[in-house]
């Protein structure tokens, strides 16, 4: 069965919003699922906020025949305590539980076992950024879906990475060679429109996960100046960078060592490049957060992090999430037909 068919409210080709902690809240996930995509809720370990979000989504969306809420919940394993999240998951029964950023790969299997016992009808999705991680996670946690995250991705990902164009086929071959044929793959990292989505489908992805593109959605919980900077940015390979600096601005970096993050470059980065020490950068950053614009600035003179992927130069306007889902879905399908007809 195709992945889209196993999620009965969705349409094919499958469009998914990334579970961006603090950004992808009730309004975004509801709008994406209502448009026939997969709405994923981001969580950054704030359980009362997650409870409110799930209650809001539960009011807005009808459940599937299996009694599931037609959205997913993203969990960052190094931050969240499963004992705190599990009662909420059991209460609201999301169709998908997404996991990312475990301190140890072995943790995924423990979490998957406990989540499966509590929510046997929900799918387990795990985001990975290397062939090694994909193979270990496939063998131990046995997820229903793996999200192959390429290094163009906005926000956090593997510090040592590859674009999904090489990562996805290699993971796909390695899974097949080891008999893990039941795991569907979805792609993430630099996908912002129907063309990049078509490329991912051509590589064998059964869905595309977009973070940066959905940061421009009206329903996303993002500061308007950050959104302005996103729409203004171009040439993403130059205007964004992966670095651990971005996790060091508020205080010592708490992310597991294998991860860093991609942000639009801003004044904190310029200071770092010109040799300003981390204590001074932190002091300036803390002061900037007190401003009305919360340290964001569309001309990149601000000091706050603005997570975004290399596809940011193709994000040109703020628009409703449903429009993004419909546009990427139809353009990807049309593009695949057009390419096939030209071969
Ligand atoms: C602002 C932002 C926040 C993110 N937060 C999370 C998160 O909380 N959990 C997670 O699994 N991934 C998170 N990601 C990464 C996404 O899951 C996804 O891999 C990425 O957005 C894909 O690349 P793209 O931004 O180029 O579309 C975040 C990405 C962005 C841009």
Compose a concise summary of this entry.
By secondary structure, this protein is α/β, with parallel strands linked by helices.
Structure description:
There is one protein chain. The strands form 2 sheets. This protein has an 8-stranded parallel sheet with strand order 1-9-8-6-5-4-3-2. 41% of the residues lie in helices and 16% in strands. With 343 residues, the protein is of the alpha/beta class. The protein has 2 domains: 3-222 and 315-342, TIM Barrel (Alpha-Beta Barrel); 224-312, no CATH class. The model has no long low-confidence stretch (mean pLDDT 96). GO terms for molecular function: nitronate monooxygenase activity. Pfam families: NMO (PF03060).
| Name of the CATH first level of the largest domain | Alpha Beta
Q: How many β-strand runs?
A: 11
Oligomeric state? single chain
- The level of helicity is 40-55%
Give the mean pLDDT: 96
Which fold name fills CATH's third level, the topology of the largest domain?
A: TIM Barrel
Strand order of the largest sheet: 1-9-8-6-5-4-3-2
CATH architecture title of the largest domain? Alpha-Beta Barrel
> Rg from C-alpha positions?
19 Å
Helices, strands, pairings?
Blueprint: H1 3-6, E1 15-17, H2 26-34, E2 39-41, H3 47-60, E3 69-76, H4 82-92, E4 94-100, H5 106-118, E5 123-128, H6 131-140, E6 145-149, E7 155-158, H7 164-177, E8 184-188, H8 194-202, E9 208-210, H9 212-215, H10 224-232, H11 236-239, E10 240-243, E11 259-264, H12 267-273, H13 278-288, H14 321-342
Parallel strand pairs: 1-9, 2-3, 3-4, 4-5, 5-6, 6-8, 8-9
Antiparallel strand pairs: 7-11, 10-11
Helix pairs in contact: 2-3, 3-4, 6-7, 8-14
Keywords: Flavoprotein, FMN, Oxidoreductase
GO molecular function, one term: nitronate monooxygenase activity
Pfam families: NMO
